[in-house]
Design a protein that fits this description.
Blueprint (H helix, E strand, L loop, with lengths): L1 E3 L4 H12 L14 H6 L2 E9 L6 H5 L9 H21 L4 E3 L3 H10 L2 E8 L8 H9 L2 E5 L15 H5 L16 H13 L2 E3 L5 H10 L5 E2 L16 H9 L3 E4 L3 H4 L12 H15 L4 E3 L18 H10 L4 H19 L1
Parallel strand pairs: 1-2, 2-4, 3-4, 4-5, 5-6, 7-8, 8-9
Helix pairs in contact: 6-8
């Protein structure tokens, strides 16, 4: 069985339909993920993110506004449109996929053999700081919220600030240790705990990670982040963060983005290698133990990793980890059991 905490497939489908005129469907496509490959590859659960860029959402592009514009109203409109796409596609894939909103739904997936689809949102700024909108997301079926993407918002600050990158600052390797959660961000974390929503710290600043560790009373996750000791990009977690996440009963998902796995000289192509994923997995288990690691592929949100080009590649990853010395018990935990433990506890 396989559980994956993060993909951007719904947003990519929406993008290709609305902005490129492509007839792209979830059941079968040329993306990293489609429903048929999930089923054929032995997935039990795929988390589908509704990804919104605050300064580059589809609604902004369609209205001809510049990416530097921040429009919370349009970001909320965008996440609602993505939700409509998700629900339509889920209905069309009813023989293959089943919505998961509770631990009982997970158990039903085991019985029916359907692939569970758990809805997440990647960018807490879509709420505009409104707790009412957070609760509306919950009512829409969202069960995990990535507090920030690559822009500051009402909840907190990211480690990679896309505005800084446009201005030429080397923020890919300089963590933000000063700016963390806002007071409203702390309110969101508390309310998410009451609702039964997972707090996701991927993309969040270093300071924000420690703020979440302070105020979150339940296990939290880094849905698609690797080990900074192996690759120094600040999208990855430090050893101290990995240990803290493990101590709190949380889990982090291996991200297949080649640039988060290995640094290469400027101008050199980084196609992605299985040995890089294995190196991160080995380090994370050594630091945090075998209960804190899962999968968070970031499929359809990253350039194709040539070693792991899609959902159909998970057997290759299993074999690579097995050949490098991981036990069957450890592999089961990485591929599904650790994520399921956290989900069943929080949901």
């Amino acid at each position: 069985m396989i559980t994956d905490m993060h993909c951007d497939t719904i947003s990519e489908i929406r993008h290709r339909r609305a902005l490129e005129g492509e007839a792209c469907r979830l059941e079968e496509n040329t993306l990293h993920i489609d429903a048929r490959r999930l089923k054929d590859s032995g997935y039990l659960l795929q988390c589908f993110a509704l990804f919104v860029s605050l300064r580059g959402c589809g609604a902004l592009r369609e209205q001809g506004e510049q990416p530097s514009v921040s429009r919370p109203d349009l970001a909320w409109e965008e996440v609602r449109e993505l939700h409509r796409v998700y629900r339509q596609e889920l209905e069309c894939c009813g023989k293959l996929l089943q919505s998961v909103e509770s631990a009982k739904d997970l158990e039903q997936c085991r019985r029916t053999g359907k692939v569970g689809a758990l809805l997440t949102v990647e960018e807490g700024g879509v709420c505009g700081g409104s707790l009412d909108r957070l609760e509306e997301l919950y009512d829409m079926g969202v069960r995990m919220l990535t507090l920030t993407w690559n822009f500051p918002n009402e909840l907190g600050h990211p480690n990679i600030n896309a505005l800084d990158i446009r201005q030429g600052y080397p923020s890919l390797f300089l963590p933000d240790t000063l700016h963390g959660l806002t007071d409203r961000g702390r309110d969101f974390v508390a309310r998410m705990g009451e609702l039964g929503m997972l707090v996701d710290v991927s993309h969040l600043s270093d300071k924000g990670f420690w703020d979440v560790a302070e105020v979150c009373g339940r296990p939290f996750v880094a849905s698609h982040s690797n080990a900074r000791a192996v690759c120094p990009c600040v999208r990855n977690l430090t050893d101290e963060m990995i240990r803290t996440l493990a101590e709190r009963g949380g889990v982090m998902g291996l991200n297949f983005c080649a640039d988060f796995l290995r640094t290469v000289p400027e101008g050199e192509k980084n196609p992605g290698r299985l040995e890089d994923v294995t190196a991160h997995a080995r380090h994370i288990l050594r630091v945090g133990g075998e209960d804190c690691l899962g999968l968070g592929s970031d499929f359809d949100g990253i350039d194709t990793n040539q070693a792991l080009p899609g959902a159909q590649s998970m057997g290759k990853l299993w074999e690579a980890l097995k050949q490098s010395g991981f036990t069957e018990r450890q592999l089961d935990k990485i591929f599904y059991a650790n994520v399921l433990r956290v989900l069943e506890g929080v949901l």
